[in-house]
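Posting this for the archive.
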Amino acid sequence: MRISPLDIRQQQFTVRTFRGFDSQEVDAFLDDVAEDYEAVLKENALLKEQVAGFEERARGLAERERALQDTLIATQRLGDEMKAAARREAELHTREAELRGEKILEEVRGEEAKLRSEVQALRRTRRQLIEDLRSTLESYQRLMSAEFGDDAGGTDTRG
């Protein structure tokens, strides 16, 4: 059974005529005890409220900590995904650049082969023109020799 401060204040004792306690002293002591007990009960209630508040705050802090941890993990995961995406994109750009470079190199090689072919064709044409010119000059020389005799063709153009 719990005793309240009111119970202490209203407590009555049987008074014996002989060797009894001074009733005023007992009443004063009981009032002091009741006041102290009442203060202790109030302090106990206040402390219980504070404990409940602290427990609530602790739960809130634990929830925040979990949320922060979840956020941190999500941020880490997002950062890793962004790094991986950047790597993939860089690899893709590198491959595309390599393919463009190979294509350009093939075009340059094709252009080089075409130019070599044209140079060879020009050299053949030059040789042919030189042969044609030499043949034409020899024909003119023979015509002149025939027309003017050996006197006009005394000098040999071949060498």
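Residues 22-148 form one domain. The mean pLDDT is 88.
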